[in-house]
User: What shape does this take?
Amino acid sequence: EIVLTQSPGTLSLSPGERATLSCKASQSVSSSYLSWYQQKPGQAPRFLIYGASSRATGIPDRFSGSGSGTDFTLTISRLEPEDFAVYYCQQYGRSQYTFGQGTKLEVK
Amino acid sequence: EVQLVQSGAEVKKPGESLKISCKGSGYSFTKYWIGWVRQMPGKGLEWMGIIYPGDSDTRYSPSFQGQVTISADKSISTAYLQWSSLKASDTAIHYCARWGFNGDYGYAAYDYWGQGTLVTVSS
Assistant: This one.
């Protein structure tokens, strides 16, 4: 089973700053099957990024994804107040789907 | 508009059985996999399993194999998650989500989510 490890566990930043969230896989992951989600308290997860770097419909261009192999990154270029949430990476491979443990992005 | 609407919150006692549902609309229900994801209180997302309603092909996470049963009734566009004997540790929000896939565009992700069903198991 592929394990996804996200870091940091918590990231404290201010609106307007740049956020960089990491997702590392225990073995190589197909970029086509690496996605990112945002979850706010009391809400279902929201789909952000697919194929490691493509934004889902309606996702602002301040969100970008990158990476390949075992190292993937979600970047938020300039934080807006509504971006403070928990972010999860997720991969699919060999009929198994796994999520990272999440990174909480909080207001500094 | 694609929608996944889940059944309401449940409060059960240990040892009881339960079946929760997820009804899809706005798309061809039989052509997309539906996954189930658990979120225990204050914790992250855990993938439980997935079903293809077109032929009921089902896959489970090793962590949940034998603990839950996933099924679907394509005639009413509804997927189900069931337990035969609940434990207190099953207390969680359970989400269903559609696995959107288009190999031509490299699109593969849980693109639509239900609102979640809170299951509380307590004596």
Remarks:
- The CA atoms of residues 30 and 69 of chain A lie 7 Å apart.
